[in-house]
Every structure is written in C-alpha cells, then in structure tokens.
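Section 3.1: Structural characterization of target chains.
Under the original work plan, the team committed to producing a structural model for every single-chain target entering the pipeline before any wet-lab resources were allocated. The record below documents one such target. The sequence was received from the expression subgroup and is listed exactly as submitted; it comprises 689 residues.
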Amino acid sequence: MNAPVNPSDPLVLFMPSGKRGRFPVGTPVLDAARQLGVYVESVCGGRATCGRCQVVVQEGNFAKHKIISSNDHISPVGPKEKRYAEVRSLIEGRRLSCSATILGDLVIDVPQDTVVNAQTIRKAASDRVIERNPAVQLCYVEVDEPDMHKPLGDLDRLKVMLETDWGWKDLLVSQHLMPQVQGILRKGNWAVTAAIHRDLNSSRPTIISLSPGLKNEAYGIACDIGSTTIAMHLVSLLSGRILATSGTSNPQIRFGEDLMSRVSYVMMNPDGREAMTKAVREAVNDLTEKVCEEAGVDRHDILDAVFVCNPIMHHLFLGIDPTELGQAPFALAVSGAVHTWASEIDLDINRGARVYLLPCIAGHVGADAAGATLSEGPYRQDKMMLLVDVGTNAEIVLGNRTRVVAASSPTGPAFEGAEISGGQRAAPGAIERVRIDPLTLEPKYRVIGSEVWSDEEGFDAAVAATGVTGICGSAIIEVVAEMYLSGIISEDGVVDGSLSAKSPRIVQNGRTFSYLLRDGEPRITVTQNDVRAIQLAKAALYAGVKLLMEKQGVETVDTIRFAGAFGSFIDPKYAMVLGLIPDCELSEVKAIGNAAGTGALMALLNRDHRREIETQVGKIEKIETALEPHFQQLFIDAMALPNKVDPFPKLSAAVALPPRKSVSADGISSDNTPRRRSREERAARRSRD
C-alpha cells in the first residue's frame, strides 16, 4: 500500500511523458520514475555501472506546471557517478538517476539516446515514438559464492539475488540454461546478467538467457512476412532504437505467385508444406543475419521476436498445413496470439529467445491486418477510418471507436504486375509514374531509379544503367486512370478504337485496341485485357469496401489509409479516379507504408500493445464477402470507372472527370468525333500535372 502523499514534498515532473508526483527528500530519481510508470532503463540494479538510467535536470521557472527546477534541487555528483564518468564517460549535465536523489522541485528530462555503446541508426524505419515496456528485462546481480555451511545450489542462489535485488519471485529457467549456469557464474566471477521474459501477467517469468558480468545489450526483431516480400526491423529492446531495417523476396514465390496457388501446391505435393516452411524460415534467418551485420550486432543477442503475416503465411511459417484456408469455411488452425520459442521454429537467434505472433482476425484477414489495425488504431478515434492493405488478397478494416468491421477481397496479382502484358514487380527500370496529354494522347513516364521524365532532356542517360524494362503496379493504376481521363477508354473500360485516326498511340490488336505507352525496346502497350484485369481487381476491392460501409450504415468515409509496400506508391488521386477507393477528401487519403510492420514493432517494444490488439481483435466483426448476396451487384457496379452508381463529388471537385461515353466491345465509339475539352477542363488538367 502506498504511503499518503505529503503536499510539502518536492514535486517532480518527468518529460516528455508529462507524468508528475511528490516524493520525500532523498528519494532516488530512478525510484520516483518507476513509481510514476516512467520508463527509465536500468540493468545494473542501481549500482551505477550500466549507465542506462541517465537523466537531465531542466533549469528554470516552469509557470505552467508551477515548478521552479534547478540543479541545486538534486543531490551533488557522488562517488559512484564520478567513477562511472571516469570509466565510461558521462555527457556534461547528465546524471545517473539511480544515484541522484531528490532535494527539491524538479523537471527531469529522460533523453531518448541514453543507451551506452548504442549502435548507429542506419535506417529510420519509423518516426513514431513508442513507449517502452518490452517483454524482456536485463537484470545484473552479484551472487554469493558457494558455502559448505549453506548447501544451496548455484541456480538457487542466483534466484535468491534476483528476488532480493529485483523483486522477481518464483522464476522459471529455460532448460537449455541448466547445464550452463555453473560455468557462467564462475566465468563472471559470480556476477551475471539474467534476461527475464515476462510477457503475460498470468504466466511465470522465465530466465531465458544468462551472461557473465554486466551485459548491456539486448535486441529484438519485428518481422512482416508477406506473400511477396519479407520486411524486418532490428531493434534495441533497451532504448527502442531501430538499428537496421531490410527486406527480401519471399522465396515461396517459386511455389506460386499468389496465396491460393501455394495452397494448391501443398494439396498436390505431399512434401509441399515442409518445403515452403523450410524456405520461409531460411529466408527469415538470412534476413536476420543481414540486419545484424548492418548494425554490428551478434544475432545471438536477439532475445525476443514478433511476427505478423497473412493467414496462409502465418500457418506455413509455423509449420501448419494451410489447406483448410483454401476452401470454405476458411478455418484457421489457430486464430489467437501465438507464443513459442525461437528454437522450436528453427530461428537462428538466441536459443532462449521467445517468439510472439499477433492474432489473426479471420480466415483471410491475418495478423498483418491486426498489426496495421494496432498501428493506425481506428478503434481509438471518432472518425470513420478505412484501412486498406492492397495485395493479391486485399485486407480491409473499417471503423471507429464505436465499431470496427473487417473483410478480405480477392484482388489477384494484377496490381503487382502479374497478368499485365508489360507488367513487372517494382524494380529499377520499371515505369512507376505515367501522364497522358489529353489533347495529343502522347504519354510521358518516369522509371524507378530516376527522377527524370521521359520527355525531359537527359532521360536516356538517366536510365542507361537500368533501361526501361516494364510497368509496375503504381504505374498500372496511373496509366489506366490517365487513359480514362484522356478519353482513351470509356467508363466501362473499353479502349476507343476511333481515336486511332487521331493518334498512332491507339493501335489495333485483333478485334480490340491497345494504347502504345512506349515505342522502343521493349515495346510496352496497355491492352484491352490489361484494362480488364485492373477493372476486375479494383472492382473486387471496392465491392469489399462498399460492403463494409453498408454494414456500418455510412455513405462516406472520413479518412483512408493505404497500408503495405504497394500502398506506399499509390497516388491517392489516381486510386480514386480508378474507383479503387470510395470518394473522400484527397487530403484525408494517405499512404502509411508498412503499417503491419509498425504494429509488430509496437508489440515488440511494449507488451501492453500485445494485450491491446488481442482485446481489439476479439471485438472486430468479420464479414465474409463470399457469403454476402449483395456483393456480386456491388462488384458489377464497381467495374465502371470510377463507379456505375456511386457519385464522387469530392473527387469531381478536384479532378475534371470526362463525360460518359459509350464504346462497343470492338472499340467503336458512338461518337467518333473526339471531344474537345473546355478551357476550364484543360486548366484543371494542367493543375493535376
């Protein structure tokens, strides 16, 4: 029971958290921080040897908080701090909160860079500040040596000191440590650092690693296993710093481009599941090695790992047969959060490291969607948020703090370049941006690896190293949308063959017509079949979104977030012109990158986020589009650009949409005279560019 607060005790305010409280004179600053729930790291147990608990006193009159803070209100530098400063160095003005005590009112700043010997941050993967409360804690203790008169085992004396110094009771010990305890204790001259895992409040904390002497580092990985790519963050668990970020292709692609083809491979090949499980685990190990090399970290210092995946990747990673996910009712073998050991799934990190997988929402709305939901938090706000992860299987979440619904929609691989005549995955040399002049129908484009447009001087030199190799997903969306805005295709997606008299860019291709985007090597055209593939994909996504809007009883959404690697490169304007997403203020449509990976990062650095998403997933309502009778009509309406029945007033205010025209299946327009745009429309067109 806490002692009553004395109003005459000094008032201490911690920044940037803003937490405050009164404490008796002589209270160590570290103790005050812990009582208020302010995360200040300490490994050495207050011995002033690890240096992780550094703080800075802010001097001045803080009228807003009614605090006059001064260095005179904290104890003078003592012998422990002097010794640390001599041995390790201490930045002027910083104090060790385990040694410094409170003498008067204080404003204390907790620096975000207080990690001793921290690795250099090579890549900034996220600028989000995540409050730290990791599942792993490092605890340094000095253990009594053996005594013939006190026949207590080495491990038992270690447990006694962990309880005495750190308050840990009833600790479990990883079995692999049992044969090593005596050797580690003697190597450290009876001083050791124990890594304790304490994720669930209901489970007993476990010693998962033991190191001789003071161990001042512990790392974790947050990993998103997608069907196409695998992305990973390497993180310091003690500071929250992202030390390295990298990605690699998912080697399972050789078994099938999309998820269902991989399920089919498992069904048709007796050893298919084992082969794909082995492939993805090896890829994770290779990526782990890569990020560790980049950051200069020993991979065996990785003590915790968090993964997010779509349901089929989730099952294959865990070694579970995904066959049931390939057929109704799309039953998951496990939907809740998974806790396991790294050694059980062949991960080459610390043998005692733990692994956590976020829960899956439904049969085709996986832990990756849960991670994105945790990252963006529609359930934390009043606005109606649409969260879309565009891939071969689009995952859709819609809601606010009142109610959240989710669904998946089979968009297929067209958005990733598959099934498109000149399509390819995003890589140097791929066309990524397209513009078409509405009067001449002449295109210009930009390729990955160069900022120069194709109609600008120096383009050929800029792309000499890569060439122009094809067209990737973001450009496929743009070129189809531009073809619509330029009148090349009708709202039904039919290429207007009558325009061949106006432009050589409109070329006949059998009974249909194509648009010549690049007349070179390779020759890149957008065919009628390409347009159809994009229409089918976008209609599936929009119909899923519309179905969720109907379930929520809303006509519009307030804000839209594109998640995933592909979503990062989609231009919101063109996505809306295409009818990929519903009408919304363009300023409220944003690409958020790998939100699933950010969710994994949040769960890695703060175990409270694990409980948060586990609770929220239980509240999310899952909608199965295949069972909804109205889905088919929504799909048919969504085949039109932007949509057959839904108005797009906000889009129309920002973009000059062409009038509707009818084009027969063979590409003959009912009005063979090219429509001349008004001066206002041409001005609006120029403003778009």
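Confidence is low (pLDDT under 50) at residues 115-124, 672-684.
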